[in-house]
TrEMBL record:
InterPro entries: DinB/YfiT-like, DUF1993
UniProt protein name: DUF1993 domain-containing protein
Domain of life: Bacteria
Transmembrane segments: none
One Pfam family per UniProt: DUF1993
């Protein structure tokens, strides 16, 4: 049995974002239970030179939604990076999930050799679809989801491995 590009992308992205939202909810509940400003968590980072939690979530959602769009050969839906609250981050994740769900398998399947060009801060990068998915999108998505988890865990939020990977 072969694994299609759709099966290797959209369902993986949806699960990662669903679990990311779960982790954020636990972070929000942690702040409320301890009666401190949630903004402290939203601006938290593991190191002074890294991006804050809010930006980690924005990048994770961008990776997932843009990944599906580019594999499908369409321009990605643009999200403004203006979120400053947990509620706004949850809404962003929901918009990304809805967008990913709008793609059909036939749009993404067969994209293994589709040319994908992206602009990064270091310039343009070119990929074939399979390399873009496996060597750029998936590692970046999980890096930013993991970093969000680690920021919250370091801040004292009671999280465990199952919060990150979710239920099978």
């Amino acid at each position: 049995m072969t694994l299609s590009m759709y099966q290797a992308s959209a369902p993986v992205f949806l699960r990662a974002l669903t679990n990311l939202q779960h982790v954020l909810r636990k972070g929000e509940a942690h702040a409320q239970a301890r009666k401190f400003d949630p903004e402290l968590l939203l601006q938290a980072r593991l190191s002074p030179d890294m991006l804050p939690l809010t930006r980690q979530v924005q990048i994770a959602t961008d990776m997932a939604k843009n990944g599906c769009a580019r594999l499908a050969g369409v321009d990605p839906m643009k999200f403004e990076d203006t979120e400053t609250t947990f509620a706004e981050l949850h809404a962003r994740i929901e918009r990304a999930i809805d967008y990913i769900k709008s793609f059909k398998a036939e749009q993404i399947d067969g994209s293994e050799t589709r040319e994908v060009t992206i602009k990064t801060r270091t310039g343009e990068q070119q990929f074939e679809g399979q390399g873009y998915l496996l060597h750029f999108v998936i590692p970046n998505l999980f890096f930013h989801c993991t970093t969000t988890y680690a920021v919250l865990r370091q801040a004292g939020v009671e999280l465990g491995k199952m919060d990150f990977i979710g239920k099978p």
